Automatic annotation (TrEMBL):
Keywords: Membrane, Transmembrane, Transmembrane helix. It comes from the Bacteria. InterPro entries: AA-Vitamin_Transporters, EamA_dom, EmrE-like. Residues 11-143, 156-292 form the EamA domain. This is EamA domain-containing protein.
């Protein structure tokens, strides 16, 4: 499949499905944290997904060990991926989840800025910047009131989440601008999963986390959902999309994830759904339409 300059119905449908899965993942992580330490949970997720994606690649006879110039970019992407999740979990110890979401979802802007230098064929027009800004306003409508509350030491966590957003963008740009763009989605993902599994497990040990402390069925079900559907299936699909479609246009869809995460929390965890949720959904949807019309 040759690279495309616009998103077609297949890409839009896949992104809607992926954002829904990533939104539900937020509720799954909360459930999993009731019995598994957060960084250890992330490490287990990467380790389990490494096994599944490797098995899937072997079943499909995807070449994984040929010399194709992806080793060093792949290791770089893996380190960026691991550092991103480490900053997310560490940053959330200092700031609230809702503040963290605001800063994490500045990532599409960093992708767009990096694309100006690294991806000359993906230059953003004024309408695309406007659409992304409108979508970000939707996220602010949903979570922005938390920025006005006394922060204390929250600025430390906020900076970590901004760093995580930059690393997320750097991972996307590394995949798009190097030899990784020419390899399979499975191999592209395995670099990141294998490296992050090792780094996150070691980090959890250094932090002194207890690991699995309440292994009830719901906790294991949550972890299984993250391993099978999120870290394996959805990430393979995401990196396949990055390989074939413009990264800047795909990134604009990521603003849907926090809104869908709040909706999932209301449906799965009984959390309150306010009018701001639906206003945010409308703004994000309008912004995505403007950015991709």
């Amino acid at each position: 499949m040759p690279p495309k300059t616009q998103l077609d119905r297949l890409a839009i449908g896949m992104m809607l499905l992926l954002c829904t899965l990533w939104g539900v993942q937020q509720a799954a992580i909360k459930i999993g944290s009731l019995g598994i330490s957060p960084v250890w949970q992330s490490g287990l997720r990467s380790a389990g997904a490494t096994v599944l994606v490797f098995g899937w690649a072997c079943l499909r006879r995807v070449p994984l060990f040929e010399r194709d110039g992806t080793l060093w970019p792949g290791l770089l992407a893996g380190c960026l991926f691991a550092a991103e999740f480490a900053l997310i979990f560490l940053g959330l110890q200092f700031t609230t989840a809702s503040r963290g979401v605001i800063f994490l979802y500045t990532a599409p802007f960093f992708v767009a800025l990096g694309a100006k230098r690294l991806l000359p064929n993906e230059r953003m027009r004024r309408a695309q910047w406007l659409g992304m800004a409108l979508a970000f306003v939707g996220v602010l409508v949903l979570f922005g009131e938390n920025l006005l509350r006394p922060a204390g030491q929250a600025w430390v966590g906020d900076l970590m989440l901004v760093g995580a957003a930059m690393l997320w963008a750097a991972t996307t740009l590394t995949v798009k601008a190097t030899a990784l763009a020419r390899t399979s989605a499975e191999k592209m993902l395995l670099y990141q999963l294998a490296v992050s599994a090792l780094v996150l497990v070691v980090l959890s040990w250094l932090l002194g986390e207890p690991g699995v402390f309440a292994p009830v069925p719901m906790v294991w079900a949550s972890l299984a959902f993250q391993i099978v559907l999120v870290a394996s299936a959805s990430y393979v699909a995401w990196f396949w999309l990055i390989r074939h479609y413009p990264a800047t246009r795909l990134s604009s869809f990521s603003f849907l994830t926090p809104v869908l995460g709040v909706l999932a929390g209301g449906l799965l965890l009984g959390e309150t759904l306010t009018p701001a949720v639906f206003a945010a959904l409308g703004l994000v949807g309008a912004g995505i339409w403007i950015a991709n019309r």
